[in-house]
């Protein structure tokens, strides 16, 4: 998983798009999407959505990836899919 500097645009609501300058976004392979896709740290998703971390962790529509250092990353595709409904 490589770490890159990039700006990621996330559609949180259909009428509103939020641009997140995410210094630590990582691109990795999501086995559930079957795609190479940006991942966001869970803390970024919490800040972005204002949902509780536990609520996000229990959302089975989100594709979570737990790193060896314990950091939880969330597949950007699943964020868009599960939070824009
Ligand atoms: Zn995914």
Any overview of this molecule?
There is one protein chain. With 85 residues, the protein is an alpha+beta fold. The chain has one domain. The strands form two sheets. It has a five-stranded antiparallel sheet with strand order 1-4-5-7-6. Strands 2-3 form a two-stranded antiparallel sheet. A hairpin with a 2-residue loop joins strand 2 and strand 3. The termini are far apart. About 12% of the residues have low confidence. The structure holds zinc ion. Zinc ion binds next to helix 3.
Quick structural gist:
This protein has helices spanning 42-49, 53-57, 76-83, and strands at 2-3, 6-13, 16-22, 26-30, 35-41, 64-66, 72-75. The protein is an alpha+beta fold. The protein is globular and about 25 Å long.
Gyration radius over CA: 12 Å
SS element count, helices: 3
Assembly classification = single chain
* Helix proportion range: 10-25%
Count all strands and give the number. Answer: 7
Largest sheet: 5 strands, antiparallel
Features:
alpha+beta, 3 helices, 85 residues, binds zinc ion, 5-stranded antiparallel sheet
Q: What is the element layout, followed by pairings?
A:
Elements: E1 2-3, E2 6-13, E3 16-22, E4 26-30, E5 35-41, H1 42-49, H2 53-57, E6 64-66, E7 72-75, H3 76-83
Antiparallel strand pairs: 1-4, 2-3, 4-5, 5-7, 6-7
